[in-house]
Amino acid sequence: MTAADLLARIRLNGAVPRHIAIIMDGNGRWARERLMPRPMGHRSGMKSVREVVEGAIEAGVEVLSLFAFSQENWQRPITEVSALMSLLEEYIAREANELAERGVRVMVLGELDRLTPPARAAVDRVMAQTAHNDRLTLNLFISYGSRAEILRATRSIAADVAAGKLSPGEITEAEIEKRLFTAGCPDPDLLIRTSGEQRISNFLLWQVAYAELYISPVLWPDFGRRELYEAIVAYQSRERRFGKVSA
Length: 247
Ligand code: FPP
Prior knowledge:
Blueprint: H1 3-13, E1 19-23, H2 27-33, H3 38-59, E2 63-70, H4 78-101, E3 104-109, H5 117-130, E4 136-144, H6 146-162, H7 173-177, E5 190-193, E6 212-215, H8 225-236
Parallel strand pairs: 1-2, 1-5, 2-4, 3-4, 5-6
Helix pairs in contact: 1-8, 2-3, 3-4, 3-8, 4-5
């Protein structure tokens, strides 16, 4: 089926996931299959980011979360880390105006103090430029690890308790949620991972509690609008029970 056929089917089916999160995996293997250096795989993966953003807007998704760079990724060879930082700058330089025009609000989430100064400046610029938009929120997770995020929230709560601003009995799920990078964002309904790997890899551990999982065998640089729509159609055929019994 073509992307257009799938989109028509999504619209007929009805409920579209409000929030889709994607673990973009397989860039390295895609490059290796073509005897290219790994950064070429990441560069090609940038095209998929563009397609998936456009596809999400057209399908009426509210939030798209992309895992672009994990805290563990800092341990990759320096050449690959530099290539990924440059790609981030390039992506923002190339796409910021179009994203702004299309009503996309870009949020970059993670330990941003570790970014190179030019990458950090680009991130701050695109977030400011698109802050007022509300058609699609694009969360780019960079230098992100979910355990570190939960640890950060825990420290913040402990500091409030120590300062007498909060009692242990007042620590609720909402108190934790508002201290996560994703504060105010609905939880993902659908979590996609590409390249056939069946792991969460420290991505949004708290937030994906009730997300439907969809593993695609396709390597990220080959993942586009059609593959996104196939995932949404699969999601629409699932029965979400949130731990309860069927209606
Ligand atoms: C995983 O593939 C992918 C990454 C670590 C980087 C993702 C980055 C992009 C898609 C491009 C930049 C995007 C933006 C938004 C600037 P891998 O390298 O782990 O692949 P492998 O498992 O095949 O080695």
